[in-house]
Amino acid sequence: MGVILKYAVAGLVRYWLIHLDYWQTIANRVEIATPLNSWKRLMEGVYLYDHNIDPYEGDSFHESPIMLLFFYYIMKKVPFILPVLFTVMDLLTAHLLYKTSKAFIRFFKESQEKNLLEVAEESKPMLLEDKQLKESAEYVLSVYLFNPYSVLNCAGMTTTVVQNLLVATALWGASSGQRIVACVFIALATHQALYPLLLIVPIAILLAEINKGCTKCSYIRTLLVFVLSWGFLIYLSAYIMNGSYNYVYNTYGFILTVPDLKPNIGLFWYFFTEMFEHFRVLFVCAFQINALALYIVPLTLRFKREPVLLATVLIALSTIFRSYPCVGDVGFYLALLPMWKHLFTFMQQKFIVGCTFIITSALGPTVWHLWIYSGSANANFFFGVTLSFATAQIFLITDLLFAYIKREFTLKHGSSRQVDGKPAKLVLR
Amino acid sequence: MGSLRNLLYYSFFLTYFLCVRCDDFKEELYIKPLPPTHLYSYFQFVTLVNSELSSFHSHLAPRSLAEVVSRFQVEELHLTLTEGQWRHHQWGYPVLDAAPGAELYAWFSPDVVDVDTQWKKLSATLSGLFCASLNFIDNFNTVTPQMALWPTGAVKSSQNITTQLRYASLPREIVCTENLTPWKKLLPCESSRGFSALLNSRMIHNTNYHSIGVHVRKVCKSNDCLETQLEFKQTVALVYDYDIISSNDWSFRKLFGQGLPGACPLSSDSKIYVDVTSNDTQSFTLTPPPDNVIVSQRGGSDTKLAVYNINPDGQMINIGVKYKSKPDLPVSVPPPLHFTRYILGYGKEFGGIVTEITNNLWTSINVVVLENAPWWLPIQLSSLRINGEAESSLVQSQYYSPGRSRQKPYHLELLMTLPPKSTTTITIDFEFVFLKWQEYPPDANHGFYVGSALISANLPTARNYTSVPITGSTFDSFVNASKTWYPIVFRTNGAMVSLPTPDFSMPYNVICLACTVVALAFGPLHNICTKELVLKPLGTPVSLTQKLLNLFKKKKD
Prior knowledge:
The structure holds 2 protein chains of 2 kinds.
Chain A: H1 2-18, H2 23-28, H3 39-50, H4 65-77, H5 82-114, H6 130-146, H7 148-155, H8 160-175, H9 179-193, H10 200-210, H11 215-240, H12 247-250, H13 252-257, H14 268-273, H15 280-292, H16 296-302, H17 307-321, H18 327-336, H19 350-373, H20 379-413, E1 418-419, E2 422-428
Antiparallel strand pairs in A: 1-2
Helix pairs in contact in A: 1-5, 1-6, 1-7, 3-4, 5-6, 5-8, 6-18, 7-18, 8-9, 8-10, 9-11, 10-11, 10-17, 15-17, 17-18, 17-20, 19-20
Chain B: H1 2-21, E1 24-34, E2 38-49, H2 63-71, E3 74-83, H3 88-91, E4 101-108, H4 115-130, E5 142-143, E6 165-170, H5 177-185, H6 201-204, E7 209-220, E8 228-241, H7 252-256, E9 260-261, E10 269-275, E11 284-287, E12 292-298, E13 301-309, E14 316-317, E15 320-323, E16 337-344, E17 350-359, E18 365-373, E19 379-386, E20 395-401, E21 410-418, E22 422-431, E23 448-450, E24 454-459, E25 486-491, E26 495-497, H8 507-530, E27 533-537, H9 544-556
Protein name (chain A): Phosphatidylinositol glycan anchor biosynthesis class U protein
Family (chain A): Belongs to the PIGU family.
Pathway (chain A): Glycolipid biosynthesis; glycosylphosphatidylinositol-anchor biosynthesis
């Protein structure tokens, strides 16, 4: 009953916000709408497509042709359904995350029982009981439904709503062992925004663990299904655009080369505004490698046994370092964090991170107004806010990982911090 | 005897040469008082070249320009450099309208395959010829108008002219003496004799509006148009404010700083036309008296022109007007079509461009409006509203070419029917673009110029219309030239937007700070992935001296 009430309230809030007079303001906020996902650009793309002008000829539309066609038919046939559609999609995302976290709990319990022997006697009380685990699924749902970042993202009708749905479906598919669903949906998400490409690794591990049997065969099968479906989507998009692959420059090309320097909550915009021209290519490559390829191998090797943690961290890192992030992406990974509620006691920077989130969320719109509308601040102010927001997110993620290894250590060696009776501290070596 | 034979020989050769070349040079000056307190003077220097093929042996035509035209296979070329804004609703229409700043458009011959390369070469060459920044013309500010511009010269009816056309305007261009001097050098008499002697840069850059132009086109030699001639027309349009010359009585000496030292000896015809239509209501006297006064009836409006034939005798002429009494301010009759353009919105995030076109006629009229937004002003076609309507019935045809950042401008053309006695408002939204720091011009907070929109119309009446008919090249053809339509291309006023700017002194700081944040992630993640947790016993707290000693000890090791 409580769950249904949560859905109803969250749905009503979203639906009400979309019908508010301030809807335009929300949909145009620089923190919510980026050139990649804004509703305005989607409208322009559909309008151009409707008037037989190739939307990829110009610079105004960066969504995939599949999305273009999808929204084209909706706007042509049933435009009045759009507010409901966005609300339902977001609720569905919440529901899928809820189901994913439930599956994850099952999964977590199994591994806890399996590793019971390794746990030190004095750490036994730290093991999680069913009640605690069940709570975390409820928290995942609540956070996604009532986090202002997700709510505003849905109210702004950005295409990130669709992307969150696709990623959530893929995670749910993986956690319930449905290879085809997971691979097809992660391919759809990759086709739309490229960065979810990273998630194929945790999904492959998760699928291999759930569908017991030959691990390597499972990896290969997952990868094969993913590559085939991604390839098919690329071909299908070209088919929609009458066999022209020009859209690739406006979707993947746009994400990778960062030609639009409109401010957002990420790190790219001011960095590449102020970049010296002859270093641009070098730094574009460096930043994209940082977002796409740098952390995947080491993190996979380190957290092979925890694919869900790996997925959470990869989603968060790609959100922080992607070229056009928005608060919708942040809201999505924040909703995954309550799954790791048992790690919170080991985290050291919760307070700092929490304060920074609140302060930057308030300060960002303020300095934006000062810079753009009243002309009494300059770009540095907004840059400073985005910088501290990114730093807070980084602290959150690294703190989470430290907490995980600390808990792992404590489980194994007990909670006493003493060596031979002398006080000691935990250090990395 | 021998010298006489030589003389005969040379004179024969000379006549032969002249007859073959048959270059014809004419200079004209047209002066018209403009309501409320302005004076329009328009210079026109026309050179007709008979054989267009051998442009390397030019006689009166400017060889440097002829070479450019033949080298780049240009069919028709229009270049104007303008400072100031023509006020159509007050002043009526100019003989030739020009966009503020530099404007260049050209049709290339159908033989030219790679028009874009040829266009870039042409603009670069003209840039050198006129000392203007035309070399900044590139693909990102060039459009190919589909409906708004048509050649004024003779073209073969079968050829596809639109694909060979390129149009660009540089609204930021500042026009000054360095453009006028090379322009004067193209004239056969340069600035020593003839009307061009009046063009003192000291005086003409003091005006409210000045525009210099070069127009090259092909004209028919005869009615059947089997042969064509090349016409080089150089123009100067000046608008003086009576307040600047500090009285309503004007004379050449007041306007140009000196009298006219006779006609250019190389010109076949040198005439000055003064529009004296307003003499009926506000009487003034012309000194010296004109040679004759002609009345032209054209498209329902009467114009009285006082004509002076100027001889190349080197005598100083100072034409002037003296009002009998202090004249009242004339009431300006609004022209049949006028327009304004302005920017909407506040802040530096979202805005809109509005073009308002007023039709004062009792009939509806078709116009083509060309909106040409630079790439840094991305307009959204879905936000196009005509009188507030998304799908307006006024639009007959529409062409849109979306822009691309740093590559292509946004180009929208609308063929519209303006209802009689109405004002039509075209609104389109745009979003401000954040440029790279090196793309901002010096003084970035000065603002960015948005070029004018083109409005092309066929007017049914010649009220306020001063243009020379398309078939003629001189003002003789203006007299009694009634037609069904009077084609004209207007340029609206330009606009200015202020783009958001970054802090230009910050590049190193920004690079350092952003990289630090990346490193903040990289360091801990590297530690987590490569190191393991161990318990390390805490030593007893050490004093500062101990710490220093420890430091040295380590070094010894």
